[in-house]
Amino acid sequence: MRLISFLLLALGGLAAAHAAEEDVEADTTAVASGDTCCAVLKVYFGDKLSDQGSATYNESLATYWSAQEEQIYPTCIVRPTSAMDVSKALRFLVPLSCKFAIRAGGFGTVPGIANIKGGVTIDLRGLNDVALNSDNITVNVGSGAAWGAVYSQLQTSNLTVAGARAGSVGVGGSTLGGGLGDFAPKAGFAADQVIAFQVVLANGDIVTASATQNIALYKALKGGSSNLGIVTRLTFKTFPIENIWGGTILYNKTTIDAHAQALYDFASNPSYDANAGYLLSFIYNPSFGTILASRLAYAEPTENPPVFQAITAIPNQLQNSTQITNVAAFSNLSLSFSADGYRQDNWDLTFENNVVWYKSLYGLFQNSISSLKGVENVTWAFTLEPIVPAILAQSQATGGNILGLDNLTLPGLALGVFSATWQDPAKDKQVYDASDKFLQKVTDVAKKAKVLQLYVDVNYAGRKQNPIASFGMPNVAFLKQAAKQVDPNGVFQKLVPGGFKL
Ligand SMILES: Cc1cc2nc3c(=O)[nH]c(=O)nc-3n(C[C@H](O)[C@H](O)[C@H](O)COP(=O)(O)OP(=O)(O)OC[C@H]3O[C@@H](n4cnc5c(N)ncnc54)[C@H](O)[C@@H]3O)c2cc1C
């Protein structure tokens, strides 16, 4: 009976949905079943709604990055192709208190971050237009686009945006979580480069958030992830770029001391070269043991520029892929030490840039490997990514964000990103336990060494972390206030359980 009345509501179209919205406050405690929610949505969305077992449903699941996300089965997947579609979806889902998930690129690794068992998953990949505006400076990007499409399209005009390193990562999730890429020292976090967000609010309204409209929402979206609304389009400011130089050099692990020093010197250089982006990784796999990797990126076609020469001079190199290339091709080079569709786990912490600490961290990494016995084809990696004052200067120049990294001075910070990849679901508990133990150990030792910082990056945060709290109390208070203004019933916390919540 309830289903029939919901269907009648849907058949009555949006007018009825509007009426329901006016009459009934979103009651987020009485949740409609996934079947009911999908039946209602089907009336409006037709072929844009995929039922379990259909080809489009299976394609959507198969394109998540992590196997754990692929194995969560929503009752249906809705695939909007316009902001109006997203608005209509919310106008149906919210009054019925339907549980839903928001998915863009699907690269989040925490199970359930962008998918929902027995609910409705909104797959935004149909919102994937990339269009350079007539000013030849700004670009409109659908939130479901992948970064590779942005880089390819802008390259024809010798422009780019500093987004995620891997071309297949989604623009939506990565930008709303901050977004640190190779060229962040030139332009800031991906979120800092957004001059306007088109957002669908919980009540279905489609609004613009920019420096002049919905100003609090604009700032809150620069790090606030899925807590405020569904972003459908982002307008980025681009910057000029032609060819670049970069690649990855693999080294024997015996060179760790030289790398620790080189990383420290790179990040603490008072005349930092803003063209340069650098990552240092420790990588373990049972087939090759532990190796070290330096990923180097330079925003000019200059071979081995002076800023990297201390790193490229480190001996005992096993492989070197550095080359002159372009941003789109670079984003397609394999940079990840994990593979698409494998089981994944991530977490991150931030440290003071400190050479003694890097050596000690490497020791903790090596000690943690013993807990992986019997996990076949596991890849266990830890990446250090400098957060230099040049990045934060860009954030400030563009009006600031809510990440809480405002007062950074030399010697700077390093974001530490842990990732594990494995294949056998039977080993989940062992790998999760090992990952949790390693996180605890690194936290404890870093605290003792007085190098641990508050900041946890949303984009790599782990199952047990709370990156939003790491923005600091004033930013959390700002975010809560901004969320309350646009979503007084807390729809994006109560009906969207996945993701990092306020
Ligand atoms: C191989 C690889 C490389 C990576 N490289 C980088 C990198 O260089 N820099 C970096 O910062 N991060 C990087 N990441 C991390 C990546 O930024 C995060 O995983 C990010 O969440 C991915 O965004 P997505 O849209 O693909 O993910 P999704 O899993 O689709 O979404 C992630 C979260 O954002 C929410 N969300 C997505 N779109 C919207 C929207 N339009 N409106 C509201 N909420 C939304 C989702 O609900 C979910 O909570 C990388 C990850 C991988 C696996």
Automatic annotation (TrEMBL):
Record-linked PROSITE patterns: FAD_PCMH
Residue ranges annotated for the FAD-binding PCMH-type domain, each copy included: 70-241
Annotated Gene3D superfamilies: 3.30.465.10
Assigned keywords, A-Z: FAD, Flavoprotein, Oxidoreductase, Signal
Name of one Pfam family that matches: FAD_binding_4
Leader sequence residues: 1-19
An MF annotation (GO) of this entry: FAD binding
Entry superkingdom: Eukaryota
Homology family: Belongs to the oxygen-dependent FAD-linked oxidoreductase family.
PANTHER family from the UniProt entry: BINDING OXIDOREDUCTASE, PUTATIVE (AFU_ORTHOLOGUE AFUA_1G17690)-RELATED (PTHR42973), FAD-BINDING PCMH-TYPE DOMAIN-CONTAINING PROTEIN-RELATED (PTHR42973:SF22)
Record's protein name: FAD-binding PCMH-type domain-containing protein
Organism: Trichoderma parareesei (Filamentous fungus)
